[in-house]
């Protein structure tokens, strides 16, 4: 397991904390601070003095981000990291000269990288959500799928015939379902077994009314 608890000393709590943040190169919101020793001034400022002692625990998204940045450096890949952290979610995009090589067919290499990074997180006890994209692949893919879903929905409305989409990964099928869930005229459902599972779009079926007819 990787270390993510660090102890620092200083003349007071603030000094110890600032030294720790500087050493870790992290903002204060990236850590939880535990005061281990308040510290005290000695007689005439020296005799009997005791330094303050704090423990800084790097929060999960920042810990994983630090690992990924170190991993990129070790591999020698030419990549730039664009990261944002909200609550306990790390939203990460990798760009740069080597980014296209990490996409893979249908984004499979990106999915493998995400699985690797989440495995590291679990092994270290970092509980978080990770959104990973490389060279904007998933952003473009999501836009294309949403547009495709809406176009096929319009076709269903005009013809009355159901439309079967190509097989998709689970996250992509979910995106199609969400894109059309508020459309009053069509409905979606999935058919088959992965990796051949696909989405069907059809005209919304009338629901049988409950209770007696009047």
Automatic annotation (TrEMBL):
GO terms for molecular function: RNA binding. Residues 7-57 are annotated as: Jag_N domain. It is found in: Cytoplasm. GO terms for biological process: cell wall organization; peptidoglycan biosynthetic process; regulation of cell shape. Residues 139-205 form the R3H domain. Its main location: cytoplasm. Belongs to the KhpB RNA-binding protein family. Forms a complex with KhpA. Has an N-terminal Jag-N domain and 2 RNA-binding domains (KH and R3H). A probable RNA chaperone. Forms a complex with KhpA which binds to cellular RNA and controls its expression. Plays a role in peptidoglycan (PG) homeostasis and cell length regulation. NCBIfam families: Jag_EloR. This is RNA-binding protein KhpB.
């Amino acid at each position: 397991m990787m270390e993510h608890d660090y102890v620092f000393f200083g003349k007071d709590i603030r000094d110890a904390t600032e030294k720790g943040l500087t050493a870790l190169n992290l903002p204060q919101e990236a850590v939880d601070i535990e005061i281990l020793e308040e510290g005290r001034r000695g007689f005439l400022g020296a005799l009997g003095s005791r330094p303050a002692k704090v423990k800084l625990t790097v929060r999960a998204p920042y810990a994983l981000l630090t690992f990924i940045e170190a991993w990129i450096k070790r591999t020698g890949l030419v990549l730039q990291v664009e990261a944002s952290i909200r609550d306990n979610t790390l939203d990460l995009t990798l760009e740069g000269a080597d980014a296209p090589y990490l996409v893979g067919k249908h984004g499979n290499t990106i999915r493998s990288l995400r699985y690797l990074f989440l495995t590291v997180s679990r092994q270290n006890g970092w509980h978080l959500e990770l959104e990973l994209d490389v060279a904007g692949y998933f952003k473009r893919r999501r836009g294309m799928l949403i547009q495709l879903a809406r176009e096929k929905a319009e076709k269903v409305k005009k013809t009355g015939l159901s439309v079967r989409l190509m097989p998709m990964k689970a996250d992509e099928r979910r995106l199609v379902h969400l894109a059309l869930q508020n459309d009053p005229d069509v409905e979606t459902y999935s058919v088959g077994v992965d990796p051949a599972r696909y989405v069907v779009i059809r005209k919304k079926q009338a629901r049988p009314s409950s209770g007696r007819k009047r």
